[in-house]
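Appendix B, Record 12. Input sequence as logged:
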Amino acid sequence: MCLGIAGTAKNTGKTTTTAAIISELRARDIAFYLTSIGYDGENLDNITGLPKPKLRVEQGDVVATAERCLAVSTATFHVLAKTAISTPLGRVIIAKVVKPGLIVTAGPNKSSEVRELRALLRRLGPGVIIFDGALSRIAPMAETDGFVLATGAAKTPNIPQLARETELIWRMANLPLVPRAAEIAARRYAVVTLLAPDLSEVRRWNRPSLLTGQDIDQVWEAMSGDGSYLYIPGILNVTALKALAARCETQRRRLALTFADPIKLMVTGDLGEYAAVLAKIEAAGIFAGVLRRVPLLAITVNPFYPDYRYETKTYEPAYVDFNRLQVAVQRHVAAPVFNIVKQGAKGLVDIIQVHARPWENPAAVHFD
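Logged structural output:
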């Protein structure tokens, strides 16, 4: 299984979540391969100056990180392979831990490179491939089989607002598959494509995304009748989505608005505005779905936030009420919500195992 871990902001507990997951996997004798999307692992938070936990690795663990990161990590390693994937901190190296210590991770930040590294790590054998990432660089998370979201009061100490923001991410992440998704996916369209109800091709546009009202006008004019599929491998931004909503108000049509994966909807800007317009067109009879699901498996919440003190011009640790935070978030999502510090990672890893492929966890029932 390939697992993503995304933090919504600094200090929301992503690193703590990752550390707890790998510790629990280790305790269960489940192999894992640790890497990241982009760079993570600094000693101090760049904004607040408060200590930030780093990931501890033990003898026998396998990591994939940039060359210069190996030098600054306190662990020592045996290099297994040097990849062709380059980062600002050097090529990505796959290495086994020889002496325990703290690791700084830096990995690929492009979807194609994440896909390449995932394939290389899978050759090492069954196990959980962990991509430690962030919501701000979530696009490559589309290459994972599902992700855990780490959020908390550091994103905003306003609990109702945080719960609503988390719900938006959950709703986007859990869009359903469109009918006949496997058939459409097998065609590997790289550009916007309109398909008839029988999946015969009506028209292609020489671009992967729809960004303007004019784009929507062209699509609408090419449609004939109900039941078409509009496949968008790139993004449908909010401007184009609003234009589609306006068209639906004057002329209702049944259409399967088909995205490559849910991550494409999370990189379009204001999620609240996007979700509101999406709900509007769905109410008008348009079905929004994906070819490949990247489900939000679970959420971890952290009550900590850095509180700025004007009198000293420094940040000090502060906390919201955890019970209120957990209950508020749980009421807004149909996904398990954990406080890793209090509850540990046992329940979280149980969920990960259930979603693992059968050859990685033979006892699990897996539904593709």
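The radius of gyration is 22 Å.
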